What we know:
Radius of gyration: 28 Å
Number of strands: 16
Helix content: 25-40%
Strand content: 5-15%
Order of helices and strands: HEEHHHEEEEEHHEEHEEEHEEHHEHEH
Strand order of the largest sheet: 14-5-9-8-15
Amino acid sequence: MAQPLARDVVEAVAVQHGVCIRPVPLKRVDTATGKSEIIDVPCGATLASKCPSCAKQNRHLRMAQCREGWHLDSEPVITPDEPDADQRWLVEFRADVQAQRDQAASAGEPVEDLDAAITELDQEINASGMRGSVLGRAVPKRKRSTRRRQDAPDLPKRTKRSTTLGRTFTGSDGKVYRPSLFVTLTLPSYGRVSNGAPVDPDAYDYRRAARDALHFSKLVDRFVQNLRRVAGYDVQYFASVEPQKRLAPHLHMAVRGTMPRAEIKAIVAATYHQVWWPKADRVVFEDDHMPVWVKRDDADDVDQGAGDYLDPVTGEVLPTWDEALDQLGADEQADPAHVIRFGTQVDVQGVLAGTPDADQCIRYLSKYLTKSIGESLDPDNPAQREHAARMAETLRFEPCSPTCPNWLRYGVQPKSAKPGVRPGGCKGKAHKPEHLGYAGRRVLVSRKWSNKTLTEHKHDRRTWVLDALGIDGDQAPDPDRYIWRPVPNGDANVPPLAHRLLRSVAERQRWRAAMQLLQSRTDGQPAEGLSATRPAA
């Protein structure tokens, strides 16, 4: 039993060589020749991929993205492409279908088929290379007073300059320096903590910690807004959200340009986010005393969402999400359900391009990107694991979004209510133990950071490899030549997974040997005996 399993060794060797161990087989059909072949596509679509090879590759890709955009010395130019003929035709066709839909609705005729056609057209519009929605925001955004809280200091407002570059400084030797910032922000204390766990769990404010984790992404958005307002220019940033040892999320942010440390700390102290949701402090329904779903009289069997939840005792209809917000908005004396702020610990460092400090900060930014928040637990720390379990239990009944079923527990119908949902059974990302309340993105990148998309950064890395191997990158086949189709489970044409992994490992060994041979040469010419075959994307 001490002998290693051969299959496990295959996976370990595949990970060692950077091969995806969970590839997705797709059938590629050549429209020119009619031939088809099975191609393995890496599973690594997210940073939190369970495949170690794909997660590591995505981490290095993010590091390259951070490095290229942090200390730009020229203004990034982002000019949208002109729409082509196909895109114009899709929008014109979308206009005709919308006119037919409006005319049918005015005449009282059914519009279900036209709505389905509009949905498919919107998907085709996005697939053709256009961003966003044709109609924009369909539902008006609710607004409350923007007057600042009395317990928050005011922020200065500078005239905004149309630039994303920070200030430059000239040294005594005439050299020009363009420093940037590395900022670390944390949440406030919820109780004394030792070695990643509360000293007194009963005194630890788990409810506040859970709500702060749920709304942490909104607080980060407010900080960026305030930062740009005070800085006076379009601040660009690359940030990552990572767990502290106490399991609370905190933020590391690389900021292009520099500001005084005292100013950054003043912005942090003045930043807050108010959650204007119905109160979730008093439990109305629990255990066997739960609301009852009743279908409306005018609803048909197809429309499963046409109904309401009723109080099982009084028979009263629970207020809907919109009705609860209307009631909250009508009350001028109402308080927000929760207010989240940063803690007092603020770390601000000045960083210069090309220095060891810059490389260390980039590595620190990407340190935990291959792990979820729950995976950062210390296996040899039972107190920390108990702390995570208590946190997960607190999050179990906290509403995570307007559609969360937990609102029924507090006497409010969730948005787009459906039958069969129960409090404590929300499938949202925030309630999963591996996320511990934070459901936002782990990597936050501003639009004008590096003037490239992540796909373009990946293409740059691939182009570098092709150039190093002496392969002409302009020989890429026409992407419209191939049709990609999913392969059904059990397809006899798909080799076993172990066979595919061994084949990929052999290919990686050949590539690595070629790269090592090229590194030993100084003239940069292609080495003899190398295959001219293009490596797979």
